[in-house]
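Long-time lurker. I teach an intro course on protein structure, and each term I like to show students one example going from raw sequence to a predicted 3D structure in token notation. This year I'd like something fresh instead of my usual example. Would anyone be willing to generate the tokens for the chain below so I can use it in lecture? Attribution to the forum is fine with me.
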Amino acid sequence: MLTLAIDTATKVCTIALARDGEILAEYNVNVGLTHSEGLLPQIKQLMERTGIDKKSIELLAVSMGPGSFTGLRIGLATAEAMAYSWQCMLHGVDTLKALAYNIPLEGVVLSPVLDAQKGNYYQAIYEWVDGALVEHEAVSVVSKDEMLAKAASYGKTCLLLGETKRLETMDLGVNVKLAPKSLRMPKASSVALLAEIEHTDEDKKIFGLEPYYIRRSEAEELWEKRQQK
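-- Reply from a regular --
Happy to contribute to a lecture. Here you go:
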């Protein structure tokens, strides 16, 4: 199965091509461009460099959140439009699960985290067991202290990955460490590989996916406060 994957859930814009578990190409950009500027040109360049015809894409995989509200909407709208035009399947992948997929290493706990604003984090806990990624804790919104306490509670080394820049100078505790920088941020290749495993016939229904926001946007919260005055 030939898969094109998109992840615009964070400031990183990443796309990848994979076929039957093999990564063919990946393009990661983290220089501050908005996804509306960079996503389509990246896809065009990736297809041109690999010589792959868009009509040969069988599955489009897109990161569904949690993450940036605007980024998620751009990624999903683009993926839906391409899946409709190319008449291929569309599958949504959990952003934090895809992050954990970056490190297929047994014997450690993986805690992907993303910025949830106001000093909070989106966090989930995973572990590789017998070659499969097991979810220990579903995504939740937690404070920094809660996040570190959860990461340390499993009695073994826990690797933090995702948006961890604010944690680089902090005391994380005995069992909690930052994953290598090259593996911390979203990779569309992980989205692609995960989608190839997860996809079902339901993915033939192109429209109807909803981003996994978890919390309301800042704009929605401000609107509600104004209505209460």
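Some talking points for your students: The beta strands are 2-7, 13-19, 22-29, 59-63, 89-93, 109-115, 120-129, 132-143, 158-162, 176-178. The CA atoms of residues 91 and 200 lie 8 Å apart.
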